[in-house]
User: Fold Transcriptional regulator from Streptomyces minutiscleroticus.
Amino acid sequence: MGSDGAEPGSVRPGGRTARVRTAVLRAAGDALAERGFAHLDLADIARRAEVGKTTVYRRWGTATGLVADLLADMAEQSLPRTETGSLLGDLRANARLVQRTLADPRQGALFKAVIAAATCEAKTAEALHHFYDVRVTEWAPCVQQAIDRGEVPEGTDTHEVIRAVSAPLYYRLLTSGGPLDEDAADQAAAAAATAAAAGAYLRGKELG
Assistant:
């Protein structure tokens, strides 16, 4: 069976459908980073990807559908967690990964554009939530391992600890304009690790 024998819309490594998806999603990411969601145009994406317009319209339908697939692909391609043997080390590795991504000119602009679109596009918001769920779920076992080692209390919400690491970095990206460097990443990791050890992320905990 040839490469075109795959089911329509399927993604088979090395198949034409997979190559088309890769080219179109790369073009969509470039366009988002350059011009933002409001100027995302499927005909322009097709031209950039050197793919027929009909193919792009048939497969993705709308700019929102294309961005949703881009986020799904980013979740699929994202790097696995790092395990260093300590909570602080693991959270620092996580924070530096987030920092490198957001500080990258293309990736940082892309995330800004997608986050902006998610405020008014339900499908984009759903896709963005799924992307972060995948990333948080990938890293949450690092916190469970810290619980098992006795570094943080039983009952700690593992997902909330991981979210707490990224939150200051996204704040810098979107609002403060502060430097988004390794020092910022390390500070975010240290703050989350210290708070977790103090019991700040216990499930159901009422903070006085």
